[in-house]
Specification:
The chain is 21% helix and 39% strand. The strands form 2 sheets. The chain has a 6-stranded antiparallel beta sheet with strand order 1-7-8-9-5-6. Helix 2 runs antiparallel to helix 3.
Length: 147
Amino acid sequence: MLDQVTGYLSNVLITDVSHIDSDITLKLGEIKLWVHTSWRLEKEGRIVIGNDNLVELLYHEDYKFDYDASKVFIKDCLKGATIIDVKYSDFNELILLISNGFTFRSFQTNGDEEDDADNFQLYLSKQRFLVYPTKVELEDLGQFYRG
């Protein structure tokens, strides 16, 4: 079922980016990807920015502008680009290769592979995939779900 999830993410346009903080939501047309493990943007093998940078800025009042500017920067890096390849590593990393040269990587930081916490969720029109370290579940969201 993981191949089905990564198939939904391949060759799709990122139409919006929201909830940029310790987690992040990528809108891919009618599909929504919610990542709530640690994440970062990389370019040319270097880390550009990650969720830890935002959390640090958020809790320092002196850096409020930097926090807001960082969120705009992240949105500008991703919105309008296409996911050209998707990988899911043996270490439960979701790796999205983006058309503009960026790589989006989500990853666990604690080595805990218990099944009670999913790594990310992929929302379709009336269903969602919950991707855990050792399994993938498909859940029906019902006829009244609006995304």
